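Internal tracking record. Fields below are filled automatically when a chain is submitted to the structure queue. Please do not edit lines marked as system-generated. If the sequence contains nonstandard residues, flag them in the REMARKS field before resubmitting.
Queue: standard
Priority: normal
Entity type: single polypeptide chain
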Amino acid sequence: MSGFSPDWLDLREPADHAARDAGLVAALARALPEAVRAVDLGCGTGSNLRALAPHLGPRQDWMLVDHDPALLDAARQRLAAWADRAEDVGDGLVLHLGAARIAVRFRALDLAADPAASLAGRPDLVTAAALFDLVSEAWIAALAQGVAGAGAVFYTALTYDGQESWTPPHPADAAIHAAFLMHQAGDKGFGPAAGPGATEALAQAFRGHGFAVETAASPWRLGPGEAALLRALADGTVRAAAETGRIAQDDAAAWAATRQSSGTAAVIGHHDLLALPISGAERAA
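SYSTEM-GENERATED OUTPUT FOLLOWS
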């Protein structure tokens, strides 16, 4: 998978946390035991743990998985700073947050060949954030099979759904967006990316294994308070669009310049998804 810098992940974290659907998080918490074992795929700097841990039980054991050792190092540092108190225990951490004790282990692993490679310990929860639009439908199907075999609950947040609205409008909006979607469908290391179809692919895959599936919209709503994120997002969007060769250089430059203005705002569509095996669905009801 293409790399993501800790700076970019730090920049987007507040918007990610604000966008998550609270109802799905509450249903997830009801479906899990008080002592929960979780695996976080493509963990980055640990943002998904920071978003979910305050809503889960008092005893948590997390395995954070990423292919990039530098991101795992960044996750370790940021989690230690985030907690009320942190202890180094072997190769991992024990975090204390309020009344919760959160054990965290870190594993460098490239999941491209085997999506279920990190699930051997039969976790209660398999989770990820901002991942599945970058992987293939075949990879999603293999992961769903692995999660079903482990009997785990599955939750993911912030899967891009292809919907974008930028303000003020610009004549190149449609062309830039179409080129961006074309770029996104390329292979990010997991086969042709599912892109905006990822949430539906996840839903079909888990329903095929007998899970109860619920989805909810979780759009970014970005305005003046997120100016730095908007600038970085626009830069990344226009750069990806230009790489397809479908956008004239002048049009790309004009669009990018417009998006640097102080009046820029955007709504970027995502969806969250919760998939529960039958026993978990009964607890969450």
